[in-house]
Amino acid sequence: MMQFTDWDILRNLLLAARWTILLSLLAFIGGGLFGLLLTILRSMRNTLITRLIQGYVEVFQGIPLLMQLFLTFFGFSLIGFEVDAWTAAVISLTLFSSAFFHDIWRGCIEALPKGQWEACRTLGLSYLQTMRYVIVPQAMRMSIAPTVGFSVQIVKGTALASVIGFVELTKAGTMINNAVFQPFKVFAFVALLYFLICFPLSLLARYLEKKNHVAR
Amino acid sequence: MSYQLDFPSLVPFLPQFAAGLWTTIELTVISTLGGLLLGTVCAQGRISKDTWLRTICSCYVEVIRNTPFIVQLFFIFFGLPALGFKLSAWEAGVIAMVINLGAYSTEIIRAGIDAAPKGQWEAGQTLGLTRRQVFWHIILPPAYQRVYPAIASQCIIVMLGSSVVSQISVEELTFSANFIQSRTFLSFESYIVAALVYLLLAILMRQAFALVKRCTFKNPSL
Q1: Hey, which residues 171-210 in chain A have their CB within 8 Å of chain B?
Q2: Which residue in chain A is spatially nearest to B190 when comparing CA positions?
Q3: Which residue, among A124, A136, A121, A105, has the nearest Cα to A42 in the 3D structure?
Q4: Closest chain A residue to the Cα of B205, Cα to Cα
Q5: Which domains are delineated in chain A?
Q6: Nearest-5° angle of CA B98, CA B99, CA B100?
Q7: Cβ(B166)–Cβ(B175) under 8 Å?
Q8: Which of B66, B80, B187 has the CB atom closest to A74's CB atom?
């Protein structure tokens, strides 16, 4: 029988952590782009579009991420696309994070005083000019800290992809535990690795928030 | 290729869905109460004058907030028995949820406490109240009122997170959906039903929290 040293366990977990990081990055970028699109659409103040986006956000924030993963995983095969766990995980994490990103960024835009829009109107700026020169620069500064903060949620969300069979850090932990049967040690290592990814992000978010508060 | 959704075949399984829903509600209520209590106590620890207590409480908060819930759950359910703590799946699920909400609500409640004017502490102590009395009677109620919306959404997040507890075979809503789809092969339909129930539950919880808010908080100035 093969013996696993602590280093073997940790090394295999580290290899699996690459997938956690890659999945988080893809979800962050995909969700960011889609969330940006939603935010732009919403800022046009069309009632129908706003309603639709509100419904979208409500659905994705009101249904457990695990359910979203199941629905993506099984839903696509119903309409004839065979998706693997990797694609399903990327798609559902993208949709999930886009809803949250949209909510964060909309909040930042709405936090700006209404008078600024009116002032820009009075100065004869067009919608695009108002966005480009007045709204976006301020909203961006405000949104950086919560955006970084949400990236921690994405990293933690990727752990659920293990349930549909995608081998990332958590799944690797379960598999290694099945081989070595030292659950305390294995899951402590898994938790430690997640902590090492997430804690710096949390600290960064907190630092940015503090800096932002001082600046204003 | 087209596929007809078949919801009527799920009707015989309604009792299973109902049983799962009941367990989900049970888990949510218990862990909300337990988690908020734990969070309040730890928030008190985080502003204590004892450096050790403060450090322990902030380590707890940071460790829980920076690791995924599913890993915490596995650690409690699979890891702790190795040390001699035998837990049933249901107990492990509740403990994990309480510990999880405890950490998040510590941070939220502490933010509410931080916003309390320093003069309130001083005034309370001048009147001869101990630090603990000032905390529980003067600082805490308005602190709760200030951060109530954040607490409400965190509790809803914990309710949604309870779906993860199905992974250690606690028979809640997601577990029921899994079970039914394995019996009927109607995977998409089962999950749609469960997802809609979760959505409804989230909306109802938000209403319930708004109702509690109207009945509880009488101070309109905050």
Answers
A1: 173-174, 177, 182-184, 186-188, 190-191, 194-195, 198-199, 202
A2: A71
A3: A105
A4: A62
A5: 10-215 (1.10.3720.10)
A6: 90
A7: yes
A8: B187
- Predicted confidence (pLDDT) per residue in A181-191, tens digit: 889 999 999 99
User: Rounded to whole angstroms, how far apart are CA atoms B126 and A69?
Assistant: 56
| Burial of A60 (C-beta count, 10 Å sphere; 0-12/13-18/19+) | buried
Interface touch A177/B163, C-beta < 8 Å? no
Residue type, A34: F
CA distance A9 to A87: 27
Q: How far apart are alpha carbons A134 and A118 in whole angstroms?
A: 12
User: Tens of pLDDT along B44-96?
Assistant: 999 888 999 999 999 999 999 999 999 999 999 999 988 888 899 999 999 99
3-state SS, residue A79: coil
Chain B hits for A195, Cβ within 8 Å: 63, 66-67
Low-confidence ranges of chain A (pLDDT < 50): none
Residue A87, CA distances (Å) to A57, A99, A102, A165, B23 in order:
22, 19, 22, 12, 32
Cβ of B66 and A195 within 8 Å?
yes
Q: Which fold, B16-216?
A: MetI-like fold (1.10.3720)
The closest CB to that of B79, out of A156, A187, A194, belongs to A187
List CB contacts (< 8 A) between A156 and chain B. Answer: 67-69
